[in-house]
Design a protein that fits this description.
The complex is a heterodimer of chains A (about 450) and B (about 250). Chain A has about 450 residues and is an alpha/beta fold. Helices cover about 55% and strands about 10% of the residues of chain A. In chain A, strand 5 and strand 6 form a beta hairpin. Chain A is elongated, with a radius of gyration of 26 Å. Chain B is an alpha/beta fold. Chain B is globular and about 50 Å long. In chain B, the strands form two sheets. Chain B has a four-stranded parallel beta sheet with strand order 2-1-3-4, with helices on both faces. In chain B, about 60% of the residues are buried. Chain B is built from 14 helices and eight strands. The chains are: A alpha/beta (about 450), B alpha/beta (about 250). At the A-B interface, helix 1, helix 2, helix 15, helix 17 and helix 18 of A face helix 1, helix 2, helix 3, helix 4 and helix 9 of B.
């Protein structure tokens, strides 16, 4: 099956102008909140530098820190598992659940388990998984994927949430009051929390020095999910590591401000080993990450703390919606991560970008996102995955531009045609520029011709 | 002071008046301006499409053509950022390359940083919206992007503020991308045009009569959209505004 490409998916999203503008506004609102919060810290740029350096250092000594983390987490009584890919990760989770005969699972937000497609895998094995983050629960009930890593249901309007809840949770039809709907979800989730056999969480930060984990949520659902059942499974990508507990003082300040414009996430829950009488299993997942570690071009992307700020600021993401990227992590960072797994399938993503650089300036850990996207374009060309519709015109233009007389000639002919051809010969299906835009007006003389006249006039004046 | 004009290919062919405005501004300031006629294109379209091998010979030609001059000045932030930020891949270590990077300037940068212009003899009695083109803003650092924390500055804006009677309008989103993005404008036509439309409406609602920028490529896209939609907005490169106002005075 041919994978859907970004331009086509984006065009579908844009076709609904009102919705695309509503989506853009919703995310811009978050971006503005983030700006206000960033400006409130005069040391913001210094924090970004520090965070970037800590992360780069961690990536450069990843193996050592992972071992240190494993040692310390084990000392605290946790069991550490290693998974090289999504399949291994899912198998480990399944075997842990089967060991205790768990049938009902509550899961707090984790993009890693989305990346591994854990939910459908567990459901195939007869295990019910309930996402307990409100946004995630909404998309789960609608049988959709999250469209944003921090705001998974940002693409859904409250009227649609009302319909979904009416269908699944039997709320009053047509009641769109957010308080009413949230209350309904809360009651529904409470039943699920109470009945759960195990709780799965993602992880925001794993601390090598202590073997502890930090999970940040705004709804407290991670804590609720792991407080009643005996088994807590924490799933984390290896890039979530930080060396020291003191590093949290940098990252916790940056994370929520960048993500949602809050000074700090409502709940920053620290887990140091299992609770008394319980079990804590930590699964460290690679799934392609160590490939990035070895790549000088793309190593920086491993610094990502998954705040989603690059999505909120990206003018393309805001207008094309998260689903148009066809990946678990969309937006600028997703467009770097996805091709590293499968560049053929995701070859259009590094081009879903104007290289405006706003993502790079907003990134709290200073990933040079738009430069990495540009690098990916070159890589896709090198791998022979760039379509001929792009390679051939570029080759021809380069050839023409190496010869000034040819450039002058083609330019003059082009301008003549632009001035003299009838409208239908210029504006047609093969000219995407002209679909919604006028072509530039072609002047009779080029700059170099006007310059010649200017020079001769100057000479005759002297 | 000797200045070689670096006129981007599309300005040469489609917007010669922008090149002429640049020339006149510099000459009026006593610069000895020349236009090396062997120049064509800096290679940015190829480079941004991932076709580095097609951009390389153009980068090499660029070095050869412009190395002999004291300064290189160009009325396009985007093309200058190609030279200063992206030529390393092709030219690192070549004799004269480090120098070339240091002496290649976008026009507003050159006026503010090299010629130290601090007043402008001219009036422009219009409401003007300044579109801060991304490459000039973020790659060349011609202003503080809205995402960054620190003292605000913007070199093109500073120049415009020197004009008498000009009224600069404030769009809601100070420096959002217009959606041009080179081949993006064609490959992602739908998003590109939506972005451009949004940019135009933002400036129009702020009261702009004239929309300007230090990059003609953004303006080419915005002008195409504005013209099709018959928006009451004049589109002018900043060099044209600066030159017109000064020539009249």
């Amino acid at each position: 099956m041919k994978a859907a490409q970004h331009p086509e998916e984006a065009a579908k999203f844009v076709a609904n102008d009102a919705r695309a503008h509503w989506h853009d506004q919703a995310l811009w609102f978050v971006r503005e909140k983030r700006d206000r919060m960033a400006v409130s810290l005069p040391e913001w740029e210094e924090l970004r530098n520090t965070a970037s350096q800590i992360k780069l250092h961690t990536v450069s000594r990843m193996a050592d820190y992972l071992e240190e983390f494993e040692r310390n987490a084990t000392k605290l009584g946790a069991v550490v598992h290693w998974a090289k890919d999504a399949d291994e990760h899912n198998q480990i989770v399944l075997s842990l659940l089967q060991k205790i005969g768990a049938k009902h699972i509550v899961k707090s937000k984790s993009m890693l388990t989305e990346e591994c497609h854990l939910n459908p895998f567990l459901q195939e094995h007869g295990i019910e998984v309930v996402d307990t983050d409100l946004g995630e629960r909404i998309v789960q009930l609608r049988d959709e994927a999250p469209s944003h890593i921090v705001l998974p249901a940002i693409h859904i309007k409250k009227e649609e949430v009302s319909e979904t809840f009416h269908e699944h949770l039997h709320t009053e039809a047509g009641n769109n009051d957010p308080n009413y709907l949230t209350e309904a979800a809360r009651n529904h989730l409470r039943e699920k929390f109470v009945a759960a056999d195990a709780g799965i969480t993602g992880v925001n930060f794993a601390i090598a020095e202590t073997g502890g984990l930090v999970v940040c949520t705004n709804e407290g659902n991670a804590d609720l999910g792991v407080s009643l059942p005996k088994l807590h499974i924490a799933c984390l990508g290896i890039e979530k590591l930080v060396p020291k507990a003191a590093d949290l003082s940098v990252f916790l300040r940056l994370l929520a401000r960048s993500a949602t414009g809050q000074p700090i996430t409502t709940y920053s829950s620290h887990f140091h080993g299992p609770r008394p009488g319980g079990e804590l299993h930590i699964i460290l997942v690679d799934n392609g990450r160590s490939n990035l570690m070895g790549s000088s071009q793309f190593r920086n992307s491993l610094k990502c703390i998954r705040c989603g700020a690059c999505m909120n600021t990206c003018p393309v993401y805001r207008r094309s919606g998260g689903h148009s990227y066809g990946t678990t992590v969309p937006g600028p960072i997703g467009s770097i991560l996805a091709p590293s797994r499968d560049s053929k399938q995701h070859k259009s993503l590094p081009f879903a970008c104007t290289l405006c650089g706003s993502c790079t300036d907003v990134c709290p850990v200073k990933i040079d996102l738009h430069h990495e996207l540009l690098e990916w374009r070159g890589e896709i060309r090198k791998r022979g995955q760039l379509p001929m519709s792009k390679t051939v015109p570029m080759k021809l233009t380069s050839w023409m531009m190496q010869s000034p007389w040819l450039f002058r000639f083609v330019g003059a002919v082009g301008r003549w045609f632009l001035r003299h051809l009838p409208r239908w010969a210029i504006y047609h299906g093969l000219n995407p520029w002209g679909k919604q835009r006028e072509m530039p007006e072609a002047p009779k003389q080029s700059f170099r011709e006007l310059y010649q006249i200017h020079e001769s006039k100057k000479a005759s004046d002297e | 002071m000797q200045v070689a004009l670096f006129i981007p290919c599309y300005i040469d062919q489609l917007y010669p008046r922008v090149g002429m405005a640049t020339l006149e501004i510099l000459e009026r300031r006593g610069c000895d301006v020349v236009f090396p006629s062997a120049q064509t294109c800096c290679g940015q379209p190829m480079s941004n499409t991932g076709c580095a091998s097609d951009a390389k010979p153009l980068a090499e030609r660029f070095l050869e053509i412009f190395a002999p001059y004291q300064y290189v000045v160009c009325p396009s932030g985007s093309c200058v950022s190609m030279v200063r930020r992206h030529y390393d891949e092709f030219l690192e270590g070549r004799p004269g390359f480090e120098e070339l990077k240091g002496k290649t300037f976008e026009l507003c940068e050159f006026l503010v940083d090299v010629l130290k212009v601090d007043s402008w003899n001219g009036a422009y009695p219009h409401k003007v919206g300044l579109h801060s083109s991304c490459h000039g803003l973020r790659e060349l650092g011609m202003g503080k992007p809205s995402e960054r924390v620190g003292p605000a500055f913007n070199k093109p804006q500073r120049l415009l503020e020197m004009l008498d009677q000009i009224e600069l309008v404030k769009p809601q989103r100070p420096d959002e991308c217009c959606g041009f993005g080179g081949t993006f404008a064609v490959a992602e036509e739908a998003v590109s045009c939506m972005m451009g439309g949004d940019r135009l409406r933002d400036h129009l609602s702020a009261g702009a009569e004239v929309l300007t920028a230090a990059d003609m490529s953004c303006l080419m896209h915005l002008q195409g959209l504005a013209k099709r939609k018959e928006m009451p907005l004049q589109i002018k490169h900043i060099a044209e505004i600066l030159n017109e106002s000064e020539a009249k005075s």
